[in-house]
Write a structure and sequence with these properties.
The structure is a single chain. By secondary structure, the protein is of the alpha+beta class. It has one domain: Pnp Oxidase, Chain A (Roll). It contains three helices and seven strands, in the order βββαββααββ. It has helices at 37-44, 71-84, 89-92; strands at 2-9, 12-22, 28-33, 47-53, 58-68, 97-111, 118-123. Strand 2 (12-22) and strand 3 (28-33) form a beta hairpin. The longest helix is centred in the middle third of the chain and has 14 residues, at 71-84.
Length: 124
């Protein structure tokens, strides 16, 4: 599954599509190389927003804070990510590959296929 993650650079938003993996406590992990705009942006400002879905009239919006993963936690999350996205294995051992974990502060789930539409929010 893919999501659009948005970050800020010098006051302007920038967005990118990422493959993500769910963790416990609603946290998400995604990988990127250390020379991408999103890496630079998140290093400067760890606050991001993310949107998942649009197929089948269901979306999840999320706002949270990122953490650059290192050591055993990075290895654990990298393994989970490669399990979910086997195609990402080719990036996993590249020296420039990094993994971020998003700790959500706010989540909204919306399903507009229902009448009336169904929506709920979590403040974490």
């Amino acid at each position: 599954m893919f999501a659009v993650v948005s970050s800020i650079w010098q006051g302007k938003p920038q967005s990118a599509v990422v493959a993500f993996t769910e963790l416990e406590d609603f946290a998400l992990v995604f990988g990127t190389k250390n020379f991408t705009r999103k890496f630079r942006n998140i290093e400067a400002n760890p606050n991001v927003s993310l949107v998942v879905g649009w197929d089948e009239a269901v979306t999840i919006q999320l706002e949270g804070t990122t953490e650059l993963l290192e050591g055993a936690e990075m290895t654990r999350c990298q393994k989970k990510h490669v399990q979910k996205h086997p195609g990402s294995e080719r990036y996993a051992n590249m020296p420039e590959q990094r993994y971020f974990k998003i700790a959500p502060r706010w989540i909204r789930y919306t399903d507009i296929s229902q009448d009336p539409e169904f929506s709920f929010e979590l403040n974490i």
